[in-house]
Amino acid sequence: MLSTRWEPWTELDRLSREMDRLFHRGGNGQSSLAGAGSVPALNVWEDDANLYAEAELPGFAFDDLNIYVLGNQLTIQGERRPPQHEGGSWHRQERGYGKFSRMIELPTEINADGVSAELNHGILHITLPKTEAVKPRRIEVKST
């Protein structure tokens, strides 16, 4: 079972996204700003060897995403393009579109050369291997 660590910056980020969603989507059923509501939800967890990040990105193609690792910061950038429909008129347009950029600070150093990512059924899975210096080591106990 994964334990959950309380992180105030994560909570503030979540509150900010909710405020954006509330104020940019008014009650008229139409999205008023490109990009409103398009910041992906993100989960991060770890085991002894890796950190893992998962982002909800339905409707994105891998070519629409850029992933950067610099030091202990992970940045995910992308763009959801507005739907193109010939003719007709909108009745509701609630799905957000536009560019987003999400940067989080990782809790440990990682080996940036070993980072891998997959986009599967709208979920982006990123595997971030930890550096050898931060991996737990078993210390052999000798008897005298």
TrEMBL record:
Taxonomic superkingdom: Bacteria
CDD domains referenced in this protein's UniProt entry, alphabetically: ACD_sHsps-like
Domain SHSP, chain residue ranges per copy: 33-144
Pfam families per the UniProt record, alphabetical: HSP20
Sequence similarity: Belongs to the small heat shock protein (HSP20) family.
Designated name of the protein: Spore protein SP21
Source organism per UniProt: Rubripirellula lacrimiformis
